[in-house]
């Protein structure tokens, strides 16, 4: 997701990264208590949204009747990296400047927050009345997280995941227009190597791209999914974030980049030579949550903001032509502002009508830390070696040195989950193994140890592939 801190909304935020025992915190230079109710309440929001969204939300909310009713003087939006999310929220509480609301970042991040005790149930009658107008799920994806009859997060927007193409670069590269994930992992997209054709982000830098890797694993299965991911990564270039990957497509550095939908819709408006592609029957609908934090000092006012964000007036934020996100409440398209966005309404209908894949959030959460650590170690950190091995496979196949059966075998070997030996025991990065070590990888020291093991195993595999080919 995009990063940034709104200097317009937050006049002074001092960010100090303290790394101790594998933890990192943002310490926010915000008055510990803020003004009392008579002076007006200041809400603090931990968010993954960028300033394009938060600036619009800030202006609309503070001019709303709800803000006046609850005497909310200001809302401070602080952008927090996913890897620092939990520690930042806990650290802010310890420093006397607690967050009240979490907004944006995807369901996995919010489910992780729930598991860590950071979310509080929404109990405001007015907020619950607005929430009752939102479906519990859409296309098999949850739009609310419920436990024991209580609501812990609600989707404030919905998203799909696909890729953005630059038609001019595709044409100049003489590449076919991709329609599916596996097209990005194809021989056609390898023909320009070592020039990359696909932009993707490291898992450490993008929650939306991480979601795409999870979609591919769930669509194709653990074994075949890693094979597709290996070839997609080999055809591409790792970027330090989803914004950077998007820029790579818009600037013409690469012809295709994986992306969350609203990046694509905004790109189409700003760069008419680009187009967002939703892989048919190969994506999911994602609910992007908002939640009340258990650290809040202002639960009543915080829930008033949540109520507004989920109301028709709050949903108008997504209609802004610089934002272009899918509202969770389709009634917003009946407003005068919504009537002006028939293009977005058409995209909304296409999104909800696309048949998604079966996607189990709980299952994905059970292996996410392991998957992220493994992906970056094997594909991003050793990208040059990965590309060299894949180039050798493709070149030998297209020149007739190896048969199609041999090509398929080598292609599968390139991304097949690694095996390694430690302490005389052989291990394989199977789904069950990834799940068994997942929680331990939340410790950065443990994650670093596994990263080194997997880098070494991947380096050996890539070299062995090159050596075994003619």
Shape: globular
Whole-number total of structural domains: 3
Secondary-structure-derived class: alpha+beta
How much strand content do the residues show? Answer: 15-25%
Integer-rounded radius of gyration:
23 Å
The overall pLDDT average reads 92
* Low-pLDDT sequence parts: 1-35
- Name given to the CATH homologous superfamily of the largest domain: Periplasmic binding protein-like II
Level of helix content?
40-55%
Quote the CATH topology of the largest domain. D-Maltodextrin-Binding Protein, domain 2
Cα end-to-end separation: 43 Å
> So what's the CATH class of the largest domain?
Alpha Beta
Report the count of strand segments.
17
| CATH architecture group name of the largest domain | 3-Layer(aba) Sandwich
* Biggest sheet descriptor: 8 strands, mixed
Q: Helix count?
A: 19
Q: How would you characterize this protein structure?
A:
The protein is α+β, with helices and mostly antiparallel strands. The protein has three domains: 41-157 and 286-353, D-Maltodextrin-Binding Protein, domain 2; 159-277, Periplasmic binding protein-like II (D-Maltodextrin-Binding Protein, domain 2), CATH 3.40.190; 369-468, no CATH class. Helices cover 44% and strands 17% of the residues. The strands form four sheets. Strands 1, 2, 3, 4, 7, 8, 14 and 15 form an eight-stranded mixed beta sheet that branches. Strand 7 (144-147) and strand 8 form a beta hairpin. Helix 8 packs across helix 17 (404-415), helix 16 runs antiparallel to helix 17 (404-415) and helix 16 runs parallel beside helix 19. The longest helix is centred in the last third of the chain and has 25 residues, at 444-468. The chain is globular and about 80 Å long. Mean pLDDT is 92; it is low at 1-35.
């Amino acid at each position: 997701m995009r990063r940034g801190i709104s200097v317009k909304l937050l006049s002074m935020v001092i960010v100090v990264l303290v790394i101790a025992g594998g933890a990192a915190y943002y310490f926010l230079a915000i008055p510990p208590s803020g003004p009392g109710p008579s002076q007006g309440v200041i809400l603090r929001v931990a968010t993954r949204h960028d300033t394009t969204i938060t600036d619009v939300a800030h202006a609309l909310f503070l001019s709303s009747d709800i803000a006046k009713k609850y005497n909310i003087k200001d809302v401070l939006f602080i952008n927090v990296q996913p890897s620092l999310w939990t520690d930042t929220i806990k650290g802010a509480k310890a420093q006397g400047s607690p967050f009240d609301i979490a907004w944006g970042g995807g369901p996995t991040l919010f489910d992780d927050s729930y598991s860590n005790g950071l979310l509080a149930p929404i109990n405001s009658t007015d907020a619950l009345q607005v929430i009752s107008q939102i479906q519990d799920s859409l296309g098999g994806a949850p739009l609310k997280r419920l436990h024991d009859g209580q609501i812990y997060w609600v989707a404030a927007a919905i998203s799909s995941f696909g890729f953005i193409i630059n038609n001019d670069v595709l044409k100049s590269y003489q590449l076919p227009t991709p329609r599916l994930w596996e097209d990005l992992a194809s021989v056609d997209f390898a023909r320009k190597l070592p020039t990359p054709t696909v932009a993707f982000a490291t898992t450490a830098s993008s929650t939306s791209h991480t979601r795409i890797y999870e979609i591919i694993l769930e669509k194709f299965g653990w074994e075949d999914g890693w094979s597709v991911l290996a070839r997609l990564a080999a055809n591409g270039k790792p970027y330090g974030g989803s914004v950077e990957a998007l820029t790579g497509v818009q600037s013409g550095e690469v012809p295709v980049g994986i992306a969350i939908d609203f990046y694509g819709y905004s790109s189409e408006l700003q760069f008419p030579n680009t187009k967002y592609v939703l892989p048919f029957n190969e994506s999911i609908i994602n609910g992007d949550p908002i939640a009340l934090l258990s650290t809040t000092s202002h639960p009543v006012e915080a829930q008033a903001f949540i109520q507004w964000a989920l109301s028709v007036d709050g949903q108008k934020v997504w209609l802004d032509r610089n934002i272009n996100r899918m509202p969770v409440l389709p009634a917003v398209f009946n407003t005068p502002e919504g009537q002006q966005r028939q293009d977005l309404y058409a995209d909304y209908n296409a999104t909800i009508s696309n048949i998604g894949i079966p996607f189990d959030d709980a299952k994905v959460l059970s292996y996410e830390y392991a998957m992220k650590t493994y992906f970056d170690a094997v594909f991003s950190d050793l990208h040059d070696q990965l590309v060299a091995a894949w180039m050798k496979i493709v070149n030998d196949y297209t020149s007739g040195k190896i048969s199609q059966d041999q090509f398929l075998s080598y292609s599968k070997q390139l991304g097949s989950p690694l095996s390694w030996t430690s302490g005389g025991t052989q291990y394989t990065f199977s789904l069950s193994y990834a799940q068994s070590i997942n929680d331990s990888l939340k410790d950065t020291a443990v994650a670093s140890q596994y990263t080194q093991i997997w880098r070494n195993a991947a380096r050996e595999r890539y070299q062995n592939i090159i050596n075994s080919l003619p």
